[in-house]
Amino acid sequence: MAEQEIDYSTLPLSERVTHKIWKVRLGAYEELTKQFTTSASENDPCFRPYLNDPGLYKKVVTDSNVAAQEAGITSLVAFLQYGGPNTCLRLRGTLVAPLAEKGLVSMRAGTKQKTIEALMYFIELDTPDPVIEELLPILNNKLPKLVTGTVLALKEIIKAFGTRTVNPKSLVKAMPKLFAHSDKNVRAETSSLAVILYEWMGDSIKTVLFPDLKPVQQKELEEAFEAVKGTDPQQTRFLLSQQLAAQGTTSDSSSTAQDDQDEELDPMDLVDSVDVSAKIPDNFYALMASTKWKERKEAVDELFKIVSVPKIAEADFNDLTRTLAKCIAKDANVAVVTTAANCVEVMAKGLRTGFAKYRSVVAPSLFERLKEKKVSVSEALGAALDATFQSTNLSEFMEDSMEFLKSKNPQVKQETALFLVRCLKYIKVYPKSNEIKQICDASVGLLSDTAKPVRSAAAEVLGTVMKMIGERAMTPFINDLDDIRKQMIKEYFDTAEVRAKPEKTSAPTSAAAPKSASKTLGSVPSRARVGGASASSARKPGTTPPALSTRSGEGLNGGGSSGRTAKPISSSRTSRMSSSTSSTLRKKVESEATLPSSPRPAAPSLSSSGGASGSLSSRGGNNRGLAGMALSSSNSTSHSSVLSAVDKQELSDLRRAKEEWLSKSTEFEAQIDMLTVENARMKKALSEITKVNDQLTEENTRKDIDMKVKDSKLQRARIEAEASQALIMKLQKAVEDLKSENQLSSIPIMHEDPTVEEAMEIHDASDGITASEQTSRRTSVRKSIVPEEEKENGYLLSSRRESYHSGSQRLSMYASKDNLTSLSGSATGAAVSLASDLNGTSGNAGSVESWKRAAEVTNQLKARIEAMKARQLRR
User: Fold this and answer.
1) Are 157 and 197 in contact (CB under 8 A)?
2) What band does 670 get if pLDDT is binned at 50, 70 and 90?
3) CA distances from 278 to 25, 312, 339, 341, 634 (A)
């Protein structure tokens, strides 16, 4: 009950964020989200603790409780959304990897969604490359669920920002390994990612991805690509820099940016170059000079295999291109010519702009060989010309094209004209005016050629040019043609497709406005020029007002790529526009007179609502609406003068404020640079410290292992020493027992020896005693001479018995009188053997006592032997 009564809300927020109770942390995370959402600005104090300690938010997003974790990631999204770019820069390096590893594997769909949203904000507030670099290593993780979640996040990033914002090079390189993953979910998610990339990149992705995939996977992807073919993906999220650029640019520059974005991603940027110059065989040039066409064919076939790579590294190919050009121009075998043209094509595609320096070598030979009527040869030559053109521009090919359009061979003229058509469809920028004139004059001349294919090709050239420059601009070139030829050109014009965009017009177009307009508005010169020169002068050089640039572009270019001319404005429409413009301007003047602090918005509203100056001057329209304005009165004149002074004052204030902000921004940028350098230095120092720490840790671990090994060896030595000491004590005790036994009489020892018993047996036999008497006699003797204490010490008796057995000989040799003489030596040997046994048992400490004992035993044996000899003599 006591725990339930505790009010954790009274604790500071910093303590509740790290509290051990998950419900307390959950409430703290929700309160963080509320604070961030209701913050006044990016500099609000609620952001400061977590900017100073980014590691604190790492604990939030990796919370062990799933409910608290979701709330923590939600607070991170609010933190990034309202905290500005500084939050991204401070937290990105610490949070991206842990956030992905913990959030993308969550069982809660909300956690996954919020994790992806947070990653989106990390990209949006700065650049995508650091985030992608943090996510790519996770693709090698052993946990399939984490890999699947990471691929899903990457797919959503590409889908939102597009490949024009996110560079897919490193991602595409990692995809073949993902397609070979053992988990089916990883492979399925990777296929979805490939489809998204195809929508943005087109067939470019096939060039890089398909060579590393299995045929079955290629077939499945082809089917998936076919389902989305022709779709036009749109970028749904924009970087902060893109958003600011879109807000601060005119429609003209916005259209230019859009045109730049429409360019497809170059697939060659995704692959690595290959050095093919070192792979060319040494005998290639010798084989190409051979008189046998089969050897030349083998040589060009081998070369085609070598140069057939997506990207070729730069090298010196002068000799190779000259050899191929000579083969194309003069070889009699069309198979060799076709393969040589194929080699030129793949080299031009592999070297791209690097092949431009070889254009003058191969282009004339390709044009000249267009006389071949065989379709396979002409197609190979045309493909080689197209690939060579893509490495240069139209200006480089103008001279050769114009020359071969005048060729006497109809096949050459037709193929050259078709080549020009393909060039005009491929280029993205308008040709120069003199180039258009040369193309049109040459094509008009071919319209009267005797060969129908040549006339059709010339008409297609003219129709394509008309599609680019418009019908009005094309009129001087085709005005003198008959209706049949004009109709033929019109048909090709309707079906032609070009990529070139109209040239952008500049701001000085406003200078073409009629002078009468300025005279009519002489009483309000500052307001009359709000859409013209005065407005353009207030902006940066090179920019154009939106309405003016749009109208001017239509008037000068004849309606852009559509080729339609602008229709004149009727007088009724002009009068209605003038009336609406007058009322609008009158309202603006009145409002500005009462509110002098906000006169500037009148310029864009005036230009966009009616185009009073810009659109009228570009159209050369009627000025009656402006002439009848109430602004011509003296009252309006005074208002205009006041407003002009206010405008000037506010303009100066704005310029001053702009300079202040620019100076502050420069200071901020300098501080950011300094902090960046300091951060890099600290990271470097941290890495060095970490490296030294790792080395010290490794060395400490090695020393600990050595100490443990030495301790184990010392322990074993102690155990062995204790065992040895116990053995020594035992042996010493045995030696002491032996010493105590030696103090006893030697007779029991002698009777214990089997040699004494044998001697007694020999003696009894010599005395004529029967066997039963001998047995009873020996038993009585043994009982009489063996002490009781010696019977109890059986161990010592057995030890001495074994010693005597190993050291003495059997006494059976003494059966005769002659052998008794050698008993002394045998006794001595037994004594020596006994001494040696004692030495091995007791060691050096008891060596002296052992020898003394052996000497006593020897003396006893000798005495017994002498006694036995004496008894023999008496008998």
Assistant:
1) no
2) confident
3) 65, 12, 21, 21, 87
User: Residue 788 contacts by C-beta under 8 Å, 6 or more apart in sequence?
Assistant: none
Per the CB < 8 A criterion, the answer to whether 270 and 200 are in contact is: no
**What average pLDDT does this structure show over 731-745?**
76
pLDDT value for 183: 94
* HSE-CB of 119 using CA atoms within 13 angstroms: 34
Cβ atoms within 10 Å of 47's Cβ, excluding its own: 21
Q: What angle do CA 871, 874, 875 make, to 5 degrees?
A: 90
Reported as a single tens digit per residue, the pLDDT across 26-84 is: 999 999 999 999 998 888 989 998 888 888 889 999 999 999 999 999 999 999 999 98
Burial of 739 from C-beta contacts in 10 A (0-12 / 13-18 / 19+): middle
Give the SS3 label for residue 273: coil
- Retrieve residue 741's tokens: 């036994």
> For the CA atoms of the chain, what is the radius of gyration?
55
CA distance 688 to 531: 61
pLDDT of residue 596: 39
Backbone region of residue 84 per phi and psi (left: phi > 0; alpha: psi in -120 to 50; beta: other values): left
- The rounded distance, in Å, linking the Cα atoms of 509 and 546 is 12
* Dist. CA 27–CA 47, nearest whole Å: 18
Q: Two tokens at 53?
A: 């300690």
- Other Cβ atoms less than 10 A from the Cβ of 523: the count is 16
Question: Is domain 8-126 annotated with CATH 1.25.10.10?
Answer: yes
Between CA 16 and CA 694 the distance in angstroms is: 35
What DSSP string runs through 76-119? HHHHHHHH-HHHHHHHHHHHHHHHHHHHTT-S-HHHHHHHHHHH
Alpha helix locations (H) across 743-822?
747-752, 754-767, 771-785, 788-792, 794-807
Nearest to 317 by CA among 291, 349, 347: 347
Q: How far apart are CA 629 and CA 635, in angstroms?
A: 12
Cα 7 from chain centroid (whole Å): 48
Spatial distance between the Cα atoms of 47 and 773, rounded to a whole number of angstroms: 123
As a whole number of angstroms, the distance between CA 102 and CA 115 comes to 9
Task: Answer whether 46's CB lies under 8 Å from 53's CB.
Answer: no
Tell me whether domains 8-126 and 270-495 share a fold. yes
Task: State whether CATH 1.25.10.10 applies to domain 270-495.
Answer: yes
* Whether the Cβ atoms of residue 108 and residue 65 lie closer than 8 Å to each other: no
What are the residue ranges spanned by the domains of the chain?
8-126, 270-495, 523-529+543-644, 744-874
The rounded distance, in Å, linking the Cα atoms of 596 and 639 is: 11
User: Would you state the structure tokens that stand for residue 554, as one six-digit string?
Assistant: 């239509």
Contact call for residues 277 and 351 (beta carbons, < 8 A): no
**Pair of tokens at residue 804:** 């005597």
User: Contact at 8 Å (CB) between 288 and 327?
Assistant: yes
For 386, counting Cβ atoms within 10 Å of its Cβ (0-12 exposed, 13-18 middle, 19+ buried), the class is middle
Say how far apart CA 154 and CA 190 lie, in whole Å: 10
